[in-house]
Design brief:
mainly alpha; two-stranded antiparallel sheet; about 70% helix; globular
Amino acid sequence: MTSAGTARRLWGLAEPFHALTYFAQECRDAAEQAGLHGFWNGYFALRAAPLGAVGPEVVTAVFYNFAPDFVARRVPSVWADISPDAALDARISGIDAAVRRLFGEDWPASAEASEAADLAAIAAVGVELPGRPLGGANTAVAVPDEPHLMLWQALTTLREHRGDGHTVALAQREVDGIAAHVLAAADGRSDREWLMRARGWDDAAWDDATARLVERRWMDEGELTAEGLAMVAAIEADTDRLALTPWQALGDAGCDRLAGLLAPVRRTVVAAGDWPAGNPIGAPDPE
């Protein structure tokens, strides 16, 4: 039976390809050309576009770990600059340009890209909708015809489905967005400076979250306690388990084949510098 470890492995392999939409210059350029000036206006519009022209309350709820006032500085004002449909066009245009730079003109239409797209699409069809707002919204996004773009959208749907499950795992344990970042930094998956800068939190919020974790005996003197280590492991294990259903739909053989096809894709993105080391996503290196 497909294991929760498979879900984690495939996330680690797929995430750098998805994250081109955040880190590749072509994607930032596409957002600018569409009228979204500044990185964060592009980020919030392109990532939230599958939800429609929602307000800051919905984006804060769904994105979970961003400071609410950081979100409100961009949403809903971005929808005065661009419609959600135009934002979706911009994000797929940026991905197309980024992939062609990284992989050349042959790979996007290659047998390998086509097979990977077909396998990822099978898994994406298995995404559960109840309780998965961002993953569910991505299932309704029109799928491009080109294999590399089909692959990107399927992997994006799957990672947002996983992220929705991660939110469930955190909320169940009363870990709010800033506390989740403190735990991630203490666990070595990212660092405080980058997380605060990239998610809009300040020192006071960080210190307050740390104090709350100390009170719960999850941290002591800036380090995770034994209980904290156990709770972080439990959150990650639940996230993997809640991400598993789509990969079970693909099956063990399909998952192994997709992993084999994604490994060189991941290596290409990382080698090109389009997956910055220590970035706030915190995805594992499965290789």
